[in-house]
């Protein structure tokens, strides 16, 4: 690991200013993704700004009847919050399907959104990877890609956003709140938070350098059965091959987003009008234009079947 | 980008990434250790350490405090061998920095119980043969103690059928909650028995 200086500021503005000032600085929250990548020299910050002292660890009701989740709220606490369990069950379920108990105790709301891809070549520093080393090439295109994206990817990168929480936040229409070094606040819908790779796969999100996430807000609860179904290689402690976050009414209408299939949580609102026609009608529209590889074409069928299971669960 | 560019890029990248990182990042001259004073309460004792900022909580315990009970399996959050209880919660000590834990209360397997004064979970692991080689065991036991506390506190899990009902220490709950602790020897069913016995005694 490269050596680094360390700082623990007490206000969001100070933290943002510190990172904005130094292109080699990074925020650290739970550290469960950043330190993993620093040990492999995939991330090499020379200065760490610890955000754990910023008092951003509360979950508060909003005037609009929703919830404002501080950036530092731990995944365990968010999943266990009584309001989230009752009114935003899809979010509790997505969080509880991710990582392990130990990791969820550390992992934060902001860090989870910003976790980097689990593409095996991104992690293997002996292989070319455009996301890790811009311009070096993409090893996954001709390599093992069964975990990787079927839609939204590019010639330069077919990595997925690997997380579960963001998929639930997408179906809930969450908004990411930030502050920059000048104290300017910004609200970014989660739908527009993660970038598609295009020819710059090294940039995962639309955050600006030094922009600090302060909270994620959820609008008023959506009625219906809240479901998160995750299909993976083992029953626990594994990333999704495909996941479905859904809020479904008894009459079959509702909302649905897919995880494990794209560089960001994948949702096509227009396709939700077809939910009453069954899963295939929806996934045909959601995955129109998909470009799967030989290794991951199975995900299209799997997404349809996982949605079928969710629809059955909502009817039961 | 042509095929040749791609290959050239690939070779260059491979060559670059095999160099030591300091050289790659062009920071060989400036990449000196940065030291920090860290105060921790470990197993009830206040300790002050002078540490490189890079030191994980696991290395601080093992290499600097010589508390070698906590094990390093993967060093990447994938196995749970390093599990410690920090301010009442189990975490992977390998994926956190000591310097981020100023003033924290840390419990390692050594603090949970000693050979002449075993924690009930340690005693139950012995009784039920909850291990074979023992490498994963300190992490399993720290995790096991914290899991029963999480169930008591009503924290739900992936297998909890009703998010709004009380949680019980069923076999399915224990197995799901312990999935972050890998055992190469496969002592899982005996670990579940040990934990079930302790959970039963607690309730
Ligand atoms: C073995 C293993 C298995 C896992 N399995 C899953 C899984 O199944 N599903 C899943 O969803 N996840 C999984 N994870 C990933 C885990 O959820 C993430 O590591 C975690 O959520 C990251 O949160 P953190 O607070 O630790 O982030 P950190 O590591 O602290 O930070 C991550 C990034 O976010 C930036 N950052 C942090 N806070 C802020 C802020 N407030 N503003 C701006 N930038 C910020 C940091 O600079 C860094 O770039 C797994 C991880 C491991 C190690
Ligand atoms: S898919 Fe993206 S992350 Fe994976 S090797 Fe290609 S460029 Fe790198
Ligand atoms: S050593 Fe920490 S999880 Fe493996
Ligand atoms: S007892 Fe050997 S790894 Fe668990």
- The spatial strand order of the largest sheet of chain A comes to 4-5-8-6-7
CATH superfamily of the domain at 225-315 in chain A: CO dehydrogenase flavoprotein, C-terminal domain
Strand content of chain A: 15-25%
Tertiary shape of chain A = globular
Coarse structural class of chain B: alpha+beta
Count of strand segments of chain A: 11
Superfamily (CATH H level) name of the largest domain in chain B: Beta-grasp domain
Question: What percentage of residues of chain A falls in helices of 4 or more residues?
Answer: 25-40%
Gap between N and C termini of chain A: 52 Å
Give the strand order, joined by hyphens, for the main sheet of chain B: 2-1-5-3-4
Here the CATH topology of the domain at 225-315 in chain A equals: Enolase-like, domain 1
Number of helices of chain A: 11
C-alpha-based Rg of chain A, rounded: 19 Å
Contiguous low-pLDDT stretches of chain A (5 residues minimum) are none
Oligomer: heterodimer
Helix vs. strand class of chain A:
alpha+beta
Query: What's the rounded overall pLDDT mean of chain B?
Result: 89
Helix and strand pattern of chain B: HHEEHEEEHHHHH
Task: Name the largest protein-protein interface in this structure.
Answer: A-B, 51 and 59 residues
What is the level 1 CATH name of the largest domain in chain B? Alpha Beta
Number of helices of chain B: 8
């Amino acid at each position: 690991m490269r050596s680094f200086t360390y700082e623990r500021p007490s206000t969001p503005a100070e933290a943002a200013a510190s990172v904005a000032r130094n292109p080699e600085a990074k925020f650290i929250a739970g550290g469960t993704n950043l330190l993993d990548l620093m040990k492999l020299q995939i991330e090499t910050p020379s200065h760490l700004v610890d955000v754990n002292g910023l008092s951003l660890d509360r979950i508060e009701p909003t005037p609009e009847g929703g919830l404002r989740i501080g950036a530092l709220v731990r995944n365990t606490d968010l999943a266990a919050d009584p309001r989230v369990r009752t009114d935003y069950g899809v979010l509790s379920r997505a969080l509880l399907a991710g990582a392990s108990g130990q990791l969820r105790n550390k992992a934060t709301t902001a860090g989870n959104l910003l976790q980097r891809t689990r593409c095996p070549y991104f992690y293997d520093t002996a292989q070319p990877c455009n996301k890790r080393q811009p311009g070096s090439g993409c090893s996954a295109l001709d390599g093992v890609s069964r975990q990787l994206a079927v839609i939204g990817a590019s010639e330069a990168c077919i990595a997925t956003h690997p997380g579960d929480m963001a998929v639930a936040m997408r179906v809930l229409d969450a908004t990411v709140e930030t502050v920059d070094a000048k104290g300017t606040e910004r609200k970014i819908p989660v739908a527009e938070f993660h970038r598609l790779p295009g020819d710059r796969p090294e940039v995962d999100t639309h955050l600006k350098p030094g922009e600090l996430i302060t909270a994620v807000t959820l609008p008023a609860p959506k009625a219906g059965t809240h479901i998160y179904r995750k299909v993976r290689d083992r029953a626990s402690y594994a990333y999704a091959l495909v996941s479905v976050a859904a809020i479904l009414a008894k009459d079959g209408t509702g909302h649905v987003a897919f995880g494990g299939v794209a560089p960001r949580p994948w949702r096509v609102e227009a396709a939700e009008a077809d939910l009453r026609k069954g899963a295939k009608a929806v996934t045909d529209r959601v995955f129109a234009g998909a470009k799967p590889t030989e290794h991951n074409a199975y995900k299209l069928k799997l997404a349809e079947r996982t949605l079928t299971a969710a629809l059955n669960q909502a009817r039961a | 980008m042509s095929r040749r560019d791609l290959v050239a890029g690939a070779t260059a990248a491979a060559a670059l990434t095999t160099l030591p990182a300091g050289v790659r990042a062009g920071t060989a001259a400036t990449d000196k250790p940065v030291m920090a004073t860290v105060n921790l309460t470990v197993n009830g004792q206040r300790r002050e350490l002078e540490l490189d900022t890079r030191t994980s909580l696991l290395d601080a315990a093992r290499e600097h405090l010589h508390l070698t009970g906590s094990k390093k399996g993967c060093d990447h959050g994938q196995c749970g061998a390093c599990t410690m209880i920090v301010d009442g919660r189990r975490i992977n000590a390998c994926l956190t920095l000591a310097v981020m834990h100023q003033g924290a209360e840390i419990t390692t397997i050594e603090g949970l119980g000693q050979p002449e004064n075993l924690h009930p979970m340690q005693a139950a692991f012995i009784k039920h043969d909850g291990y074979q080689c023992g490498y994963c065991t300190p992490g399993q036991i720290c995790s096991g103690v914290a899991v029963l506390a999480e169930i008591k506190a009503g924290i739900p899990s992936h297998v909890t059928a009703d998010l709004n009902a009380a949680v019980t220490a069923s076999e399915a709950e224990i197995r799901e909650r312990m999935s972050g602790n890998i055992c190469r020897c496969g002592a899982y069913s005996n670990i579940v028995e040990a934990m079930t016995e302790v959970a039963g005694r607690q309730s």
